[in-house]
Design brief:
Elements lengths: L3 E9 L5 E10 L4 E5 L6 H8 L7 E6 L2 E2 L5 H8 L2 E4 L11 H7 L19 H13 L15 H15 L3 E5 L7 H17 L3 E5 L3 H7 L2 E6 L2 E6 L9
Helix pairs in contact: 3-5, 4-5, 5-6
This protein binds adenosine-5'-diphosphate (2 copies).
The site of one adenosine-5'-diphosphate has 12 residues, from α1.
GO molecular function: ABC-type phosphonate transporter activity; ATP binding; ATP hydrolysis activity
Pfam families: ABC_tran
Keywords: ATP-binding, Cell membrane, Membrane, Nucleotide-binding, Translocase, Transport
Length: about 240
């Protein structure tokens, strides 16, 4: 059974922009699916509909066999514990320590909105897990540094560590390396691949550079003006996308 099924998904923003037009596809469990397309083609909207930051206008989303398109807030919070998210601009809490940011992952998935009610006292076991996650992404020594004191690549590794402690079944990554330089990009992509291969976390990743798509993904879809215009293997993509 696919981990994710998208059926006839439509998203029309309140201003009338049709960002997604009848998009359907499935994501097999364990896949590393890249979503490609020019800026404005609907990639980000797609991920935001999947984790319900945005409400789809029509169509349906099945996660682990369950229709999550119209579930209530309480149920959504449960589902989101199993869906991690990594953003282009990292979405860390600047004035908090790196360790604190990673610990936030244990509270379940973060979204664009500020997550209210920060824990003041974290369980010892969670703290140990957070240190371990920081070790895995190679920045154990930054645990007590403020998040805004890090470089872009380091910030994205903190975001990945935050996902590691969340231990989701599905990870959504929205242009995770778009604001990083090429060598840092490869390092961050390698950590995403480890998550996918060593922890069996299915990944859906918006990417712009075709070289990264070819190097890292197992499946690809392409969007153009909100429509799915390609679905296949990375080796089948031609430069025209
Ligand atoms: P440039 O023309 O300066 O290389 P582009 O952003 O058009 O800038 O392309 C950069 C890289 O992204 C190239 O490798 C290109 O093949 C790839 N690319 C271009 N358009 C897309 C797209 N819609 N989706 C994914 N990759 C793309
Ligand atoms: P991509 O991630 O491929 O760059 P987006 O999903 O961000 O594409 O955008 C798809 C289309 O929806 C674009 O035309 C964009 O301008 C529009 N759009 C994105 N977010 C909003 C919004 N909150 N309100 C209105 N239009 C939006």
């Amino acid at each position: 059974e696919p981990i994710l099924q998208i059926k006839n998904l439509v998203k029309t923003y309140p201003n009338g922009t049709k960002a997604l037009k009848n998009v359907s596809f499935e994501v097999p469990k364990g896949a590393f699916l890249s979503v490609i397309g020019l800026s404005g083609s609907g990639k980000s909207t797609l991920l935001r509909c999947i984790n319900r930051i945005h409400e789809p206008t029509a169509g349906s989303i099945f996660f682990e066999g369950q229709d999550i398109t119209h579930i209530n807030e309480k149920h959504l919070r449960e589902v989101r514990k199993n869906i991690g998210m990594v953003f282009q601009h990292f979405n860390l809490i600047d004035r908090r320590s790196v360790l604190n940011n990673v610990l936030m992952g244990r509270l379940g998935q973060l979204n664009d909105h500020f997550l209210g009610g920060i824990f003041q006292k974290w369980p010892e076991e969670w703290i140990a897990d957070a240190h371990e996650a920081l070790k895995i992404v190679g920045i154990a020594d930054k645990a007590y540094v403020r998040a805004d004191g890090l470089s872009g690549g380091q910030k994205q590794r903190v975001a990945i560590a935050r996902t590691l402690v969340q231990n989701p079944h599905l990870l959504l990554a929205d242009e995770p390396v778009a604001s990083l330089d090429p060598s840092t990009s490869y390092s961050v992509m390698n950590y995403l691949r480890d998550l996918n291969q060593k922890r069996n976390i299915t990944v859906v990743c918006n990417l712009h550079f075709l070289s990264l798509v070819r190097d890292y993904s197992t499946h690809v879809i392409a969007l153009r003006n909100g429509e799915k215009v390609f679905e296949g293997k990375p080796t089948d993509i031609t430069e025209q996308w």
